[in-house]
Every structure is written in structure tokens, then in C-alpha cells.
Amino acid sequence: MRSKVIPTFVALALLAGVTFMGLSLRPGEASANDDWDQSDAENTFTKWLTTYPNMAGVVGGDVGRGTFAGEILNLTPGSASSPTFIEANYHFNGKHHSFTAHVFVSQLGLKAVIIGVVTDGWLKGNTVEGEYTQIKCSHDHTTTDCFQGTLDILRGH
Fold first, then answer.
1. Could you tell me which of 30, 62, 49 has the C-alpha nearest to residue 149?
2. How far apart are CA 95 and CA 23, in angstroms?
3. CA quadruple 39, 34, 25, 54: dihedral positive or negative?
4. How many other CB atoms are there within 10 angstroms of residue 117's CB atom?
């Protein structure tokens, strides 16, 4: 069974990334396109917890409409003044592309920043960064907490 505590060096790296990004990533939906240029691949998602540690949801943007699946690998709960740290695998299965990213999330309040790397599939080896906001949404005939955001693949990084 995996530990639910993120090692200190990972937490410090995540905190440095959050500080660097300044929680100022742009909000909004990504638009779908299939250009093979060197621009970043912009992807959107809405996800929710199913049975811990599993997640489900929907994706869009450059991957195309599709499904989201994920697993929480490690979780370090925060407080009102300190962030919650999450290590997870995100699986984007879109109409045009599919990939898996190993991500580290820092959530404070209802907002989070995400950093990681594509470990399998489309654009494997590239860095990812993104954000999400915790919202309420309806799915599967119920209303729950959901997490809506972006996960961009930085080509050439």
C-alpha cells in the first residue's frame, strides 16, 4: 500500500512551482485544433471522485471530446491556510488524442495548480501544467464536488 504522505523534496518542488506560477494561470476553455506546430496542446477537463482513490470525468480541447479517468497516488491534506498536496495519474482519452500524465497538484481553497509530465501516449515526455477550480456539478444523476480546469502539454519541454 502506498504512503499518503508526499516526500519533503516533492512538496518543496511543488511549492516552488506554485510560487513561480503565482497562481496566475489563465482561466478558460481550450479550443480544439489538430495543428502539428510547436504550440502548446491545450486540454480541458471536468473531473470528480468516484470511489477513492479513483476519478472520472470528461475532457476536451486539443485531445477532442472524450473521457477522463484518474487515480490519486498520494494525498497530504492541508488546512485553511496551507495547501493540500496531491500526486495522481490523469488519463485523457479524447476523440483525437489520448495520453497519461503523472501530476502534482497544490490546492488552496477552491483553486489548484498542476505540474507534471506526460508518461504515456500523445506527446510522451513533455511537461504539463494547468489549473482547476472546485465547483458543484451534475453527473450520473447526482450533484457533487467537481474540479474543472485545463491541463496544457508544453511541447518541447
1. 30
2. 30
3. negative
4. 17
Query: Over the stretch 43-73, which tens digit does the pLDDT of each residue have?
Result: 999 999 999 999 999 999 999 999 999 999 9
Residue 135: what are its φ and ψ, rounded to 5°?
-135, 175
Separation CA 114–CA 100 (nearest Å): 14
The beta-carbon contacts of 123-129 under 8 Å, at least 24 apart in sequence, are: 123/41, 123/97, 123/99, 123/153, 123/155, 124/99, 126/153, 126/154, 126/155, 126/156, 126/157, 127/153, 127/154, 127/157, 128/101, 128/103, 128/152, 128/153, 128/154, 129/21, 129/25, 129/154
pTM of the entire structure? 0.78
